[in-house]
Design a protein that fits this description.
3 helices, mainly alpha
């Protein structure tokens, strides 16, 4: 495998694969997005529930829509984490 920019390695099968740092960062982004999904849908903060603090959040309807969209994007990003991890394969 040949190292490329942007934390990717050249795969022997073609395309670029994510390295461990990219996978870890993507996993944290997905966890954060799923937490925002819970805030958007149920006004409940999982991270605060696990680590301590006030778990219920009040937010405007527009804020809840944005939180929900961010959360749905996080679900979509799961495909990048557990998919074939190829970027730019032709």
């Amino acid at each position: 495998m040949e190292l490329l920019g942007n934390n990717r390695k050249k795969s022997t099968k073609g395309g670029d694969s994510l390295n461990w740092l990219s996978r870890a960062a993507l996993l944290l982004v997905i966890i954060g997005a799923l937490n925002w999904l819970l805030v958007g849908l149920f006004q409940w903060d999982l991270v605060t529930a696990l680590l301590g603090g006030e778990t219920m959040r009040s937010a405007s309807m527009l804020s809840r829509i944005v939180y929900t969209l961010v959360g749905l994007s996080g679900i979509y990003c799961l495909t990048f984490l557990f998919g074939d991890n190829k970027v730019g394969s032709e």
